[in-house]
Structure formats: C-alpha cells, structure tokens
Amino acid sequence: MTLAACSRGGDDDRAPQPGDQQVAKVQDQIIWASDVKREAVAQGLVGEGEPLDVTSELFRRVLDEVVDQKLLAREAERRRLDASPLAQRRLEATRERILGDMLVESVVNGAISDQAIQTLYNEQLRLAKTSEEIRVRLILSRTKPEADAVIGILGQGASFEAVAMERSIDEATRFSGGDLGYSTLDVMPQAYAGALRDKPAGSTVGPFQTEGGWAVLRVEDRRKENPPTLEQARPQIVRYLTYEGVRRLLEQLRGKAKVDILLPSGPGAGEEEPASAPSGGLPRPAPAPAPAPSSASDTPFSPAA
C-alpha cells in the first residue's frame, strides 16, 4: 500500500518507458504494463530481465493485485491516514528505499558488464583447475570399538557398501552404501579433510572421531574439479559483483558523510561494515567475501558435481 500511496506518476498519460502499454485505469490513475512487471519482480515471480506477457495468467493475477493496492491506497488517502506523522515517516522510508534501489540499478548494475563477468569466471576457472574433488564412502559408528570391528570386517574382504548398509548409523548415506559423492576438501568437515588429504583412491581411512561418531572412510576416486559453465555460474557471479559494487559504493558514501551513532558503546557495539544495499525492489545479494577471490575456496560460484 505504501508503494501505491507514494507513487502518483500514473496520473500522467505519457508512458513511463518506451514501448510501455496501458493495461488498466483505476478512477483517473493509469496502470502501465511496467507497473505490473515491477510488482511481479518485487514478489520474486519473474526475474528482472525476464519477459512477462500481458496475455498470461500470471500477468492478470499480478494486475489484480496492483489494482487492489491502488484502491486500498486511495481509500487510505480519503480517510486521511497518510497525514499522520507515522505515515509520513513510513512513506519517506519507502521513498528512500526506492531511490536507493534506483542508484544501485544505475551505478552498480550498470557497471556489471559481460566482460567483467567473463574476467571473473576465467579467474575462477583457472583456480578450479588446480583443485581436486574426492568421492568418498562413509561408515559411521557410535563407539570406537564398533568402528574397530568395522575395520576388522573390511580387512576380511567384506564389501564396504554392504558393511555400510548393515552397520552405519548415518541414515542419510547408509542405504546408498555410504556414498557421500564428490566434493572438495575445503567444503568437508575439518576432521574428514585432514584424514583424506593425501590418501589415494582405494584407501580405507580411520577410524577417527567426528561430531557424529567414529568414522571409517573409503576413497573411491580423486579427479580434477569439474567447474560449471559460464551460463551456470553467471547468476552467482552477478550477485557477487553486485555485492562488491554496493559495498564499495557504501564505503565511498560513508567516507564523505558525517554519521553519528547515538547508541551507547558496549559489548557488540563496535563498528561494522555496512550490512546491505537498498532492498526495496531488488534481490538482496548473497553475502560474499569482501576482497577479490584469491583461491579456489573463495570462488563466488560453486563447482558443479
């Protein structure tokens, strides 16, 4: 409602953007196709760059919601609800979020070029080629004597998969023969990574203690990491570059502005990095490392298995 109440640009017959289309009119206020698309993007129903056909069922549903918003906002204005100090502060906060989003769109998003995406992808691809994925099977026991018994059974030639199905307490993997799939050491629990670091394919490792119990592992395979394609990685790279761009912009703005925090100092009251970008209609970028990635574990995209 606040968005509808503070946006009166629909009274103008001129299209807000080239090729826009009038799709409804509430009393004297025009609703444009771009208004409906913006609402659909804000709700996460379509992506910023995706088309939204005005003849689609989704468009009609969102259009009905926009009409309802405008009707509610007009009634709130008729009752003078927008005149209270609290309403004015809330409307101003909404206005500031929208303006912040527009700044991000024009300054940050505009700077994310195909060349920037390709450059970061190439760097991460180079780093990914130096890392290795390991396929591992797990048998998890409650106690060390139980894990020692597992080692004894395996030493007699029993199949690791069969023993995992019979004895492992890890319900997530026991019925697949303890298969943990492929992963890199940097995403494994520290105890697993330390035990597997130099072990060749075919090795049986353990038992060693973990948070969930006593683990016995078998190294099924080691291979060079299989990175995603550029198109698979693009959404995560764009989020990373957006976050970095917003972080730098906020650093510049805070460096020029006088900001006084009026709360008393105390535990947990130290200075923090600006937490986020304006978030009204834009997807909030996922947190990412502040410095440019310098190792495979810092990559802004996750390798495909």
Explained architecture:
- Residues 1-10 and 275-299 have low confidence and may be disordered.
- This protein has helices at 2-6, 33-42, 57-78, 85-108, 114-128, 144-155, 160-167, 190-196, 230-256, and strands spanning 22-26, 29-32, 132-141, 179-184, 204-210, 213-224.
- The protein contains nine helices and six strands, in the order H-E-E-H-H-H-H-E-H-H-E-H-E-E-H.
- With 305 residues, the chain is α+β, with helices and mostly antiparallel strands.
- A hairpin with a 2-residue loop joins strand 5 and strand 6.
Which term fits the overall shape? elongated
Reported for the largest beta sheet, the result is: 4 strands, antiparallel
Structure classification: alpha+beta
| Strand order in the sheet with the most strands | 4-3-6-5
Q: Terminal Cα separation, in Å? A: 45 Å
Q: Into which percentage range does the β-strand content fall?
A: 5-15%
Number of H/I helices: 9
